[in-house]
């Protein structure tokens, strides 16, 4: 197999460490694998895909040599299907549902999906055409997976769509938040370009409240999709958090995707706090930036961690150490204000809480010191609560309340999708679910507005 | 997007893909499901006298673990009364007026019987008729199917009888179980056929069970030959289509049948002269939905080539198909191995060494690295090494600059004959 993980980290050429770790299938591999697909009827892989990609169909098209058709089948159901080919937890979704799990081994659906979409990227294909303009305008706030997906579907339905994106480029998490060696930025930007080609206007560097006011948007558009995702990592609320060498994992990863790679981490000792997928990303980025030792500290156990299994495996192969039942208590700096040590405390698990996970509690007197140079916080993300409130939307701790059928918020003109509605027992955090929710907001908007189209027509 | 509509001898359909007369077109329910899935037309399973079938009926031949490389059947024509079929044809045509419905017919070689069935099926609105002169089993014993299709005079006579009564286009479906299919094809044309379709299935025995010693399939311990179809028969069918397409006396459209499983197969048949194609085995293996890629792949292929209508490709390769005597004897290609791509399985070497012209050497370079090299002077350009090579791009067949002007066998013979004439003249 040609897609094993990299074992070698170069200290001379850091950029090399950030090249995509997994190589794509060769034409021969894609031919063999696509011909292995049974082309099941009512296939469980389709059911298991949150966006309902017709997987047997796109695989058959690879086998028949119809790569354009294959890419179209994928992207039709999932406007960020090229990214999802790389970042989806496929063993929990399509590949986990493949009937061949019970017979030989499942089809490498993610890799085949990447093969077809890579072909489309390489051959500069334009896969869709905008629908005939219906005279209605929709504003999409946030150009991440949910926003792009919503905008794409709305454009196909004939709406004039404007995306307001705070960052320099659209694509959201796929552009800025997923490590380059899993998802190169160009893949996400190709998806953005596909949406732009449908006439969707993307206003980048445009922040709501600063560059344009919510009232203005509500007044000028027939509907609004709120897909702003989540914000930075919250404070640990321990001493020493302002020392030099303490980072926010989201920003840390983003810098590896947007700036020249820093050589400041070579030979350093890094502690990452948290054990979700972002923590893994921060840890594996640290390894690739040349850190000598990288530890993930988690106050619970492997059992409770939220990182996907394949992410966990990936980090282990990168020699990331995992310290379970360990919580940070204090970050200690040197005389120059740089991180020097991390004081930790051992934890034990109590009874399961409301979320079913066992709650951790500190063990008195078990404090110990770790020698570290860098502390990266990856304990979740804060919410854009002010923004949500500026639209006057009901929310629970920053999770926008929606009708899960229509994705309509407390303002009937405003729909919401993606991470902004994830949490509090609502929704899921995967890119692929955000894409599906984006599609659904588009259909809900069309359902709500189609009568006015007939009136204006 | 390219225009995929075809017009085959006056029968129009939204795309070139018809379901062949076979189990998939046995009922209105099936044909309507097929049209919903995207099939452009259907040749309704052969109508005729009430038929008794046997159990079992089908068998398939796999190849190295791949299922259904070839398919064998001993099923007979429709197992339902004519009235039921006619009613369902009527209903289906009404629901899908733009799709082609062709009735496949088989009756005894009797003029009145043909007139009667033609009238009855045309009354319910079919777009055309296909005469089943090909079914190789069961019906042949009763003087129908292949039994009549193997006799050019019977093909001609029956076609003529049908044409006397028919108002819609008549397609004659030919059996491949004959030495030269162009003979029966010409008979059909002489009988007035508007089109011909080929091939019907090839006489076959799928296998023998080496434990029970029964045939596969068997009916209570006995077997009989069936009809072979599926991907394995494609080259045979393609040749027969091509032979008819290039024959100046067979100047009617051809509906291509035989192992067509994907859009590429359809393109090949159409390039070789088919005006449309019929499919059965692939649908039986995977369901009607396979037509989606057949349509999409064909459409993307035409778009990429900048061709606006699928009808433009019909017959484009026919002129490139000829007799051996017209091939250039001075044309030369040789094999060249790309050692940076080669994975050193040595399959090319042993194929050449044992079974061809002993011109691929196994060598070792100064660094001890093994490599393969073709002695081009000894290479006859047979293609065998590139055929057995498992690695894309490891062996190229390279065209050599021609040292002598093109010369075919026929030209050579003509020159020799002229030379002899001159000698004779000179001797006088």
Automatic annotation (TrEMBL), chain A:
Q: Which InterPro entries match?
A: 4Fe4S_Fe-S-bd, DPD_II, FAD/NAD-bd_sf, FAD/NAD-binding_dom, Helical_ferredxn
Question: Which top-level group of life is the source organism from?
Answer: Bacteria
Domain 4Fe-4S ferredoxin-type: where? 27-61
Q: List the Pfam families.
A: Fer4_20, Pyr_redox_2
* PROSITE patterns with a match to the protein in the record: 4FE4S_FER_2 (PS51379)
Q: Which SUPFAM superfamilies match?
A: alpha-helical ferredoxin, Nucleotide-binding domain
**What Gene3D superfamilies does its record include?**
Alpha-helical ferredoxin, FAD/NAD(P)-binding domain
Q: What is this protein called?
A: NAD(P)-dependent oxidoreductase
UniProtKB/TrEMBL annotation, chain B:
So what does this thing catalyse? 5,6-dihydrothymine + NAD(+) = thymine + NADH + H(+); 5,6-dihydrouracil + NAD(+) = uracil + NADH + H(+)
Name the top EC class. Answer: oxidoreductase
Under the heading SUPFAM superfamilies, the entry gives: 4Fe-4S ferredoxins, FMN-linked oxidoreductases
Q: Which UniProt keywords apply?
A: Iron, Iron-sulfur, Metal-binding, Oxidoreductase
Primary role? Involved in pyrimidine base degradation. Catalyzes physiologically the reduction of uracil to 5,6-dihydrouracil (DHU) by using NADH as a specific cosubstrate. It also catalyzes the reverse reaction and the reduction of thymine to 5,6-dihydrothymine (DHT).
| Protein family (similarity comment) | Belongs to the dihydropyrimidine dehydrogenase family.
Question: Which PANTHER family does this entry report, sorted A to Z?
Answer: DIHYDROPYRIMIDINE DEHYDROGENASE [NADP(+)]
Please give the NCBIfam families that the UniProt record associates with this protein: PRK08318.1
**Name this polypeptide is given:** dihydrouracil dehydrogenase (NAD(+))
């Amino acid at each position: 197999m040609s897609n094993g993980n990299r074992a070698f980290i170069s200290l001379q050429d850091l950029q090399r460490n950030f090249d995509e770790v997994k190589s794509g299938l060769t034409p021969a591999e894609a031919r063999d694998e696509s011909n292995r697909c049974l082309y099941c009827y009512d296939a469980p892989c389709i059911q298991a895909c949150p966006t309902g990609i017709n997987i047997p169909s796109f695989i058959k098209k690879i086998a028949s040599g119809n790569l354009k058709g294959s890419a179209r089948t994928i992207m039709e159901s999932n406007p960020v299907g090229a990214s999802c080919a790389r970042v989806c937890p496929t063993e929990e979704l399509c590949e986990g549902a493949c009937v061949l799990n019970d017979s030989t081994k499942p089809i490498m659906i993610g890799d085949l999906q990447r093969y077809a979409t890579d072909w489309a990227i390489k051959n500069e294909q334009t896969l869709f055409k905008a629908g005939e303009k219906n005279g209605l305008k929709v504003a999409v706030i946030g150009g991440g997976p949910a926003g792009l997906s919503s905008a794409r579907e709305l454009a196909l339905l004939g709406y004039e769509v404007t995306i307001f994106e705070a960052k320099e480029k659209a694509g959201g998490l796929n552009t800025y938040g997923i490590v380059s060696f899993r998802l190169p930025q160009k893949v996400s930007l190709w998806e953005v370009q596909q949406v732009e080609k449908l006439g969707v206007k993307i206003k980048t560097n445009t922040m709501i409240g600063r560059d344009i006011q919510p009232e203005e948007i509500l007044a000028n558009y027939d509907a609004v999709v709120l897909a702003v995702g989540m914000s930075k990592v919250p404070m640990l609320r321990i001493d020493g958090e302002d020392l030099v060498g303490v980072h926010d994992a989201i920003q840390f990863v983003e810098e590896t995707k947007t700036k020249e790679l820093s050589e400041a981490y070579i030979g350093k000792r890094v502690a990452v706090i948290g054990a979700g997928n972002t923590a893994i990303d921060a840890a594996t980025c640290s390894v690739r930036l040349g850190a000598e030792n990288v530890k993930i500290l988690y106050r619970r156990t492997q059992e409770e961690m939220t990182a996907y299994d394949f992410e966990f495996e990936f980090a282990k192969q990168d020699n990331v150490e995992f310290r379970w039942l360990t919580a940070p208590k204090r970050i200690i700096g040197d005389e120059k204000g740089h991180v020097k040590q991390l004081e930790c405390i051992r934890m034990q698990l109590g009874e399961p809480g409301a979320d079913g996970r066992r709650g951790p509690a500190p063990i008195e007197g078990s404090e110990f010191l770790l020698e570290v140079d860098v502390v990266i916080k990856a304990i979740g993300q804060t919410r854009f609560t002010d923004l949500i409130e500026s639209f006057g939307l009901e929310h629970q701790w920053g999770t926008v309340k929606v009708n899960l059928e229509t994705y309509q918020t407390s303002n009937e003109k405003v729909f919401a999708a993606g991470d902004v509605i994830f949490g509090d027992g609502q929704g899921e955090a995967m890119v692929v679910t955000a894409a599906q929710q984006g599609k659904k907001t588009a259909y809900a908007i069309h359902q709500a507005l189609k009568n006015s189209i007939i009136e204006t027509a | 997007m390219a225009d995929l509509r075809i017009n085959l001898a006056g029968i129009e359909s939204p795309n070139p893909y018809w379901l062949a007369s076979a189990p998939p077109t046995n009922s209105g329910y099936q044909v309507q499901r097929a049209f919903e899935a995207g099939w452009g037309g259907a040749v309704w399973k052969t109508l005729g006298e009430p038929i008794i079938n046997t159990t079992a009926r089908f068998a398939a031949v796999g190849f190295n673990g791949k299922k259904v490389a070839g398919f064998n059947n001993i099923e007979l024509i429709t197992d339902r009364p004519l009235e039921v079929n006619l009613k369902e044809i009527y209903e289906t045509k009404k629901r899908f007026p733009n799709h082609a419905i062709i009735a496949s017919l088989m009756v005894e070689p009797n003029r009145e019987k043909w007139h009667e069935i033609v009238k009855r099926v045309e009354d319910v609105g079919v777009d055309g008729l296909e005469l089943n002169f090909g079914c190789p089993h069961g019906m042949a014993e009763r003087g129908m199917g292949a039994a009549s299709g193997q006799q050019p005079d019977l093909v001609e006579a029956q076609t003529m009888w049908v044409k006397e009564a028919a108002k819609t286009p008549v397609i004659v479906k030919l059996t491949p179980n004959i030495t030269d299919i162009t003979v029966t094809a010409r008979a059909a044309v002489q009988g007035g056929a508007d089109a011909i379709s080929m091939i019907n299935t090839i006489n076959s025995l799928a296998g023998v069970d080496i434990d029970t010693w029964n045939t596969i399939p068997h009916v209570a311990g006995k077997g009989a030959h069936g009809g072979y179809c599926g991907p394995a028969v494609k080259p045979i069918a393609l040749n027969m289509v091509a032979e008819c397409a290039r024959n100046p006396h067979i100047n009617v459209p051809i509906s291509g049948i035989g192992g067509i499983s994907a859009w590429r197969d359809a393109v090949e048949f159409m390039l070789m002269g088919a005006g449309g194609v019929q499919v059965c085995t692939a649908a039986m293996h995977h369901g009607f939905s396979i037509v989606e890629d057949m349509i999409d792949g064909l459409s993307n292929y035409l778009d990429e080539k900048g061709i606006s209508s699928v009808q433009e490709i019909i017959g484009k390769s026919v002129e490139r198909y000829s007799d051996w005597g017209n091939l250039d004897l001075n044309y030369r290609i040789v094999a060249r191995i790309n050692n940076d791509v080669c994975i050193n399985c040595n399959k090319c070497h042993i194929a050449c060494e044992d079974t061809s012209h002993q011109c691929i050497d196994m060598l070792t370079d100064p660094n001890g690295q093994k490599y393969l090299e073709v002695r081009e002077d000894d290479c006859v350009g047979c293609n065998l090494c590139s055929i057995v090579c498992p690695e894309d791009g490891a062996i190229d067949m390279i065209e050599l600059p021609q040292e002598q002007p093109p010369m075919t066998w026929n030209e050579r013979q003509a020159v020799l004959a002229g030379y002899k004439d001159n000698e004779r003249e000179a001797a006088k």
